[in-house]
Specification:
- It contains nine helices and three strands; from the N terminus they run H-H-H-H-E-H-H-E-E-H-H-H.
- 9% of the residues are buried.
- The protein has one domain: Orthogonal Bundle (Arc Repressor Mutant, subunit A), CATH 1.10.10.
- Strands 1-3-2 form a three-stranded antiparallel β-sheet.
- It has 184 residues and is mainly alpha-helical.
- The two termini are 24 Å apart.
- It is globular, with a radius of gyration of 20 Å.
């Protein structure tokens, strides 16, 4: 992965044969497919999720279910129950998308949902013992993904930082819901 300095360096008259950077291509033709951030993020997301699939299948999970469990494992480590609303916000999902995920995970015996006695609108989501135990098996997934991408930890951190900025911009624009995820 090129550094920010490499991406912002423009071709110069002194070196007209230099490989054009993404910024150069964007300046030269703002409609070039290869210059589009949306294309890079979309294709990259599909590719990354495809790398997860064979790692999650033995755990009986889809990628969206894995994301739900990551949030719940974090809540469990913090010693607090999650709520459906909190999960929807953190995962940038609407209730119509999240509810079936939770229903399937509950059907698999990985979590329970329970209405709050204080406020029936609040639904607490808690891991079961089986859901907690699955965390140990899932611990092999992140290093396997890092290895599959061929990126260093620093490069993965750069990608995460850049993608997180895009997510934050989308939240500010109101096109996806929820608050920013809590830092890991």
């Amino acid at each position: 992965m090129a550094t920010t300095a490499e991406h912002t360096t423009r071709r110069t008259a002194a070196d007209p044969d230099a490989e054009p950077t993404t910024a150069d291509r964007l300046r030269d033709d703002p409609l070039a497919l290869e210059s589009q951030v949306c294309f890079a993020l979309s294709a990259g997301a599909r590719g990354l999720v495809a790398l997860y699939r064979p790692l999650l299948e033995p755990l009986g999970l889809t990628h969206p279910q894995y994301l739900v469990l990551l949030a719940l494992w974090q809540d469990d480590a913090d010693g607090r129950p999650g709520t459906v609303t909190d999960l929807a916000d953190r995962l940038a999902l609407d209730a119509g998308t999240l509810s079936p995920l939770l229903r399937r995970l509950e059907g698999s015996g990985l979590l329970t949902r329970e209405r709050s006695v204080d406020d029936a609108r609040v639904v607490h989501v808690r891991l079961t013992a089986r859901g907690r135990a699955l965390r140990a098996e899932a611990a092999t997934v992140p290093p396997a993904i890092a290895a599959a991408t061929g990126l260093t930890i620093d490069e993965l951190a750069e990608v995460h930082t850049a993608a997180s900025k895009v997510v934050a911009a989308a939240r500010r624009a109101g096109v996806i819901g929820g608050a920013a995820p809590r830092p890991a």
